[in-house]
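Dock iron/sulfur cluster; give full complex structure.
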Amino acid sequence: MATRKAPFRYAAKKTNKMMWLIQAALVINVIASTVLYTIAGFDGLRLLISASLAVVVGVVTEYVFYRSWKRPKSVGYLILQKHAAMIPLMVALLLPLHAPLYLVAVSTVVAVWIGKLVFGGFGYSIFQNATVGVLFAYVSFAPQIALTPALIGQEVFYPIDVLKQALFNNELSGLDMTSLLLGGEYYTIAAGAMSGLVLIVLWVILSATRTIDWLIGATYVASVFAIATIVGGTELGIEMILTGMVLFAAVFLVSDPITSPTTRNMKILYAVIVALVTVLIRILGNNTEGVLFAILFGNVLTPYMNRNARSGTLRTFIQTAAIAIVITVTSGYVLLQMRQPVAEELNTTVEVLIDETL
Amino acid sequence: MQKQQSLRPSSVSIPLHNPTTKYYDLNVAVGERVLVGQKIAVRYNQEVRLPVFSSVSGIVRSVDSLEYVNGISMDHLVIDNDAKEEQVKARPLLKPYTAQMLRTQLVDMGVEGLDQNGLYTSLDFTNNINQVIVNAVYENAGFVKEDVQFFETHQDALIKGCYLLAEASLKPVTVLTNQRSFATKCQQAGLQVRLVRPRANKAWQVEAIASIIKQQPPYDLLSVGVIYTNAHTAKAVYDAIELGVPVTSTEVVVLLDDAKQQRIVETKIGTTLADVLAGANASAQQDATYFSGNVLSGSSMKSGEFVVHADASTVGYTSSVIEEDVCIKCGLCNDVCPVGILPQNIMDSEIREAEDRIYSYSVDQCVECGLCSYVCPSEINVLEWVRRAKRRVARGVE
Ligand code: SF4
Ligand code: SF4
């Protein structure tokens, strides 16, 4: 009797291990950021609390969801097999440190329930789960995301706000890039984006262990840098990368396999498009940080890109790389030309585009 | 890798027919004594008649219906082995040969359909053949090591075999190898050579063939006039023509317990996998899966009581249980596919039964290398979905 179909041997059973490595990276980020915030004189422990809360809320949400569908799953199964802690950790890291705990909880519920479970659970999402939850917080709880009067009183500011203002005035932000790279000085809009260095180290580890596809994150960062460099020189390129969520997105959001395209070529295009929209929103849009909207926009395009992907040969790879470079360079120059005179007009176009997307 | 002595099973069960040649005429009777290399039957279908040889000397015990590796029952001739290894008289072909004489001798000696796993084809010279390619690489599927000793001992026979293939086909023969010294020797013998770099997770065979025939290789290489065979067959060609002996044994790679150990066993045709394992001092656990053919695309059985057929290059058992995870859309399968047909996307459309999309992929180009399944971190049998899509398209086209 024939029992099972070939292959009788696999390269390695890895999905679970990959997901655990990502979660380990998120936990390292939580711990590192907690320490760095404490060094910078803020209440770092708060991050530890909100991350723990998010995990509890996330797991409970999944538990309740499966129960209500009359398909109860044990908590252990949800954590071990469905990676229920992953998205909550991302949500906690993407919100600012002072975000009220109820907001952390609500965003987690939205991320897990609407982003993940409604689409069929782990492996089936269309939209990057954590992005869905955090954007919900941005849109519905803007005042809570903004800096509190107490923080403003301490002369605390978001580096990304400074960059936005500078971009508006066609200047550089003048922030200390070394501090942004090392962390421990500025108060960032996403708690997990405190230190560029921590994120770069995590990216290297996750890439080296083949947990994430290095190409997609690298393309994203390189494209943000290239477009910004064309618009305002290498200094602006560096500022664009180190201020805000770009590096965090490169490690955890853009390289999320589930919501990014399934072919090498399309992954490159996806990363370039997300990068382009990121820079577009930052330079021309109303919103301060463009990363989250850009990812959602990329997610919308993903099914379309998958559907239209064809062969994955070396030739098409080179073609795609060429297209990616053309998009990057052209958009950089177009942005450079348009930046001043029609800024207002484009502003609205981009907004409309993104509103429609949502 | 450990090289085992050839096995001496107490009896062999030689398949008298197979799924492609369904009928047979028996040449011997129960109780009769047969010799190694004696023609015991002819199996046939409408087009071909192929001889079946005894692999041992001894007394014919019975004709039994046993399970073949595909799970279907087939008749086997059971011969008790008297271990005397008495051979029939060799019938070498005398020079000068014509191509036609060579072809006839190859069919008469049973070399014609030796290894037909995966991309390998039979030595079918009747089609319009433009090219013969012989895979003479020491390393097989990346992790299965070929028998280096085999190449060293039989180098000259191998080269002569390739040369004879050129004479039989009247077309150029290209040898794929990863050994420079062997390449030089082949060139001196007037063969074309392509040095390749075999790597795990790479369909280097498909790439090498593509670069020789200058087109994407289809699953059925004969359809584009290519005979693709391997070193063992090349040696069998030499044996059949110059020594005049038919194929009565094969060298199989035995993978024990999920490929944790590998052995090479010279196996008489008609030996059961259970006997091969016993000869390799290995016993499988209770609920192991026994397989035969190619690790990435062969077939499997619940028990080892089936005969290792002549075209199996790899056999073994695995005790690991495979549990599929959900597809995380990592795209590894898409990236590894040698013909670039995006197996994940095909699987996705097949699951959704999105016919239009299935038709828009070139599913028929799949060469069934099995790499898409092999690399999948979720251990999904992607190839099986691609096969379903292939069948759907084939049905639609009919
Ligand atoms: S679909 Fe899978 S089996 Fe078919 S050629 Fe591609 S990788 Fe090989
Ligand atoms: S390799 Fe497996 S998990 Fe990855 S995309 Fe292909 S089928 Fe999905």
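Observed: The mean pLDDT of chain B is 83.
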